[in-house]
């Protein structure tokens, strides 16, 4: 039977049912959330993971009961709260961090930027020791990535390396704060300004990290965040573009929402009060503004269910970041002095909100990273590579147009010698101590 009842206009009886359902959800949560005992070598120690509580479960079910699945009031509330949290004027939700990167870079090609826009063949400086979708938007927009090497230990490029790569066609810099460790972003922003380049900070792994006491993402023109479960907070899938430049924000919104020129929310009309009074392109005067397209856009919006989970997770973000820092410190102190391992270093003047704990096995060590990884995995200690290692060694990039400046020596070392383990808030001290002991057991036997 088709229901024409507006689920938002709940009568008293509806509300009572909803309260009952949500009470049952709380009980269900207690049933399924029995914390298992940690058994070393048997219990999986995940390299990443989302941490959910009863409020997340209730928030999702409550949103589902309303049956308003398309992004609406919760999505807009999230954007407003998150923009304030990240100290940016605008936050625009997208359906993933990869989509956020695509939107941020594509925005720089908009005709609305006039002479400042990026055009086909222009260059964007980035790194090859990257997650692929930090680089892919450059190629997807017909631009040319220029790869520089990174440092071992911080896993970021230096400002000098980026400066050396600037050429006549360079128009932008797009780099991630690797596993939460800020690159020298204040200096990078100064370099960008001196050379009239745009700077995009990929902060997908770095929510909560600071540089010179300021949050990452506040230095560049645009920044991006991921809400995939591996990240600092989650929506299941989700991402966000943030900027304080209102023109860039308008362009990102248009690109995200099919390329339309209109900014009315779904269900709204004529908020500009001149819906039938525009004349754009060669369209007839008065063509409905809701259906005028000023960009070749996408649909990269999120749903209300994702936003509901996001709002609930946002309440816990500071605690999540604190737990990540605590777990990273415990690993760092525990592994200090273990031979043959290069341990991670925070960039000077930064306070990273870590995504993971990166280890490089010294190429001169009597064992390889693969043997160590196999040993850890056997003990149920999950590991992950530092994303793509050297991106240009992957088949996808074999026939792409790019430029490399200098040697990618460290990037190649990362490809064979580097991996990371988890610091996510679901890990306990007991688990971390077992991880430390396992590294030591391996090195003692093989070192
Ligand atoms: C640095 C970086 N950028 C972008 C992304 C893509 O985010 P998503 O998985 O939400 O598309 C990731 C994913 O882990 C990442 O690590």
Chart the SSEs and their pairings:
Layout (H helix, E strand, L loop, with lengths): L11 H21 L21 H13 L6 H13 L4 E5 L2 H11 L15 E5 L4 H9 L3 E5 L10 H7 L4 E7 L8 H10 L3 E5 L7 E2 L2 E2 L6 E5 L12 E5 L2 H11 L47 H11 L2 H19 L5 E2 L7 E2 L4 E6 L7 H10 L5 E2 L17 E2 L4 H9 E5 L6 H18 L1
Parallel strand pairs: 2-3, 2-4, 3-14, 4-5, 5-8
Antiparallel strand pairs: 1-9, 6-7, 6-11, 8-9, 10-12, 12-15, 13-15
Helix pairs in contact: 1-2, 2-9, 3-9, 4-5, 4-8, 10-13
The structure holds pyridoxal-5'-phosphate.
The site of pyridoxal-5'-phosphate (PLP) has 15 residues, from α4 and α5.
What's this entry about, in short?
The protein is an alpha/beta fold and 447 residues long. 36% of the residues lie in helices and 13% in strands. Helix 7 links the parallel strand 4 and strand 5 (198-202).
What report would you give on this structure?
Helices cover 36% and strands 13% of the residues. The protein is an alpha/beta fold. The protein folds into two domains: 241 residues, Type I PLP-dependent aspartate aminotransferase-like (Major domain) (Aspartate Aminotransferase, domain 2); 130 residues, Aspartate Aminotransferase, domain 1. It is flat, with a radius of gyration of 24 Å. The model has no long low-confidence stretch (mean pLDDT 96). The site of pyridoxal-5'-phosphate has 15 residues, from helix 4 and helix 5.
């Amino acid at each position: 039977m088709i229901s024409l009842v507006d689920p938002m206009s709940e009568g008293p009886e509806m509300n009572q049912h909803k309260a009952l359902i949500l009470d049952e959800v709380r009980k269900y949560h207690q049933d399924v959330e029995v914390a298992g005992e940690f058994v070393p070598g048997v219990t999986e120690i995940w390299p990443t993971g989302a941490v959910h509580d009863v409020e997340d479960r209730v928030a999702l079910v409550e949103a589902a009961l309303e049956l308003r699945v398309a992004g609406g009031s919760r999505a807009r509330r999230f954007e407003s709260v998150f923009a304030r949290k990240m100290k940016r004027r605008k936050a625009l939700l997208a359906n993933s961090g990869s989509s956020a990167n695509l939107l941020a870079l594509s925005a720089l090609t908009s005709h609305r930027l006039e002479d400042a826009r990026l055009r086909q063949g222009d260059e964007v400086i980035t790194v090859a020791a990257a997650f692929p979708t930090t680089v892919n938007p450059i190629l997807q927009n017909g631009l040319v990535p220029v790869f520089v090497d990174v440092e071992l230990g911080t896993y970021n490029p230096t400002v000098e390396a980026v400066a050396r790569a600037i050429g006549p066609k360079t128009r932008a810099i797009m780099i991630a704060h690797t596993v939460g460790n800020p690159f020298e972003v204040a200096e990078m922003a100064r370099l960008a300004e001196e050379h009239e380049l745009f700077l995009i900070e990929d902060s997908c792994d770095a929510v909560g990290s600071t540089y010179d006491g300021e949050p990452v993402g506040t230095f560049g023109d645009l920044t991006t965040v991921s809400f995939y479960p591996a990240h600092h907070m989650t929506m299941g899938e989700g991402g966000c573009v943030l900027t304080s430049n209102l023109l860039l924000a308008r362009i990102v919104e248009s690109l995200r929402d099919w390329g339309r020129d209109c900014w009315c929310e779904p269900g709204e009309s004529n908020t500009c009060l001149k819906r039938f009074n525009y004349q754009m392109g060669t369209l007839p005067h008065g063509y409905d503004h809701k259906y005028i397209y000023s960009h070749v856009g996408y649909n990269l919006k999120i749903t209300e269910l994702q936003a509901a989970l996001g709002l609930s997770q946002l309440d816990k973000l500071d605690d999540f970041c604190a737990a990540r820092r605590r777990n990273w410190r415990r690993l760092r102190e525990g592994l200090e002095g273990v031979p043959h391992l290069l341990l991670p270093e925070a960039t000077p003047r930064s306070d990273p909100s870590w995504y993971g704990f990166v280890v490089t096995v010294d190429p001169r060590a009597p064992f390889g990273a693969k043997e160590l990884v196999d040993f850890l995995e056997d003990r149920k200690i999950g590991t992950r590579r530092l994303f793509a290692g050297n991106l240009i060694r992957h088949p996808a990039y074999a026939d792409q147009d790019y430029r490399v400046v200098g040697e990618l020596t460290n990037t190649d070392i990362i490809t064979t010698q580097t991996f990371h383990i988890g610091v996510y808030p679901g890990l306990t001290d007991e688990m971390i101590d077992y991880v430390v002991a396992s590294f030591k057991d391996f090195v003692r036997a093989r070192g």
